[in-house]
Amino acid sequence: MDIYNNETAQPILKDLKDWTFNDKGIEKKFVFKNFSESLGFIVQVGLLAEKQGHHPELFNVYNKVNIRLSTHDADGVTDKDFDLAKAIEKLSY
Ligand code: H2B
pLDDT value at position 72? Predict the structure, then answer.
């Protein structure tokens, strides 16, 4: 499994709006109208994660959901993280 660094991640992040690379993974902050919308989104992301067998770190406070993706087994960012990020972007949120 190839591990990406900030430089090698950039060409892929270019097509993933507002996702950023840092030393913990790739991350994006989502803002919703209220908690109910946040929760609906979290459930959808959870179902994608189960389908892909790859799981996000989810951080929620009321109408905000921050998602961080990394591959724990590889201790870094891999294609699995980009695949899940792409699937999340296809959700209509
Ligand atoms: N999710 C993430 N983010 N990283 C992993 O290394 C990982 C995972 N491993 N989900 C998976 C599950 C592994 O434990 C199972 C056995 O497929």
Answer: 97
User: Which atom of ligand 1 is nearest to 72's Cα?
Assistant: 6
pLDDT value, residue 65: 98
**Residue 75 lies in domain:** 6-89
Ligand 1 closest atom vs CA 55: 1
* Segment 38-72, tens digit of pLDDT: 999 999 999 999 999 999 999 999 999 999 999 99
Nearest CA to 33 out of 85, 92, 86, 93 is that of: 93
Could you tell me if residue 1 is inside a domain? no
The protein residue with its alpha carbon nearest to ligand 1, atom 15, reads: 53
53 lines ligand 1 (CB under 6 A): yes
Q: What is the CATH number of the domain that holds 63?
A: 3.30.1360.20
Tell me the pTM. Answer: 0.94
Cβ atoms of 91 and 44 within 8 Å: the answer is: yes
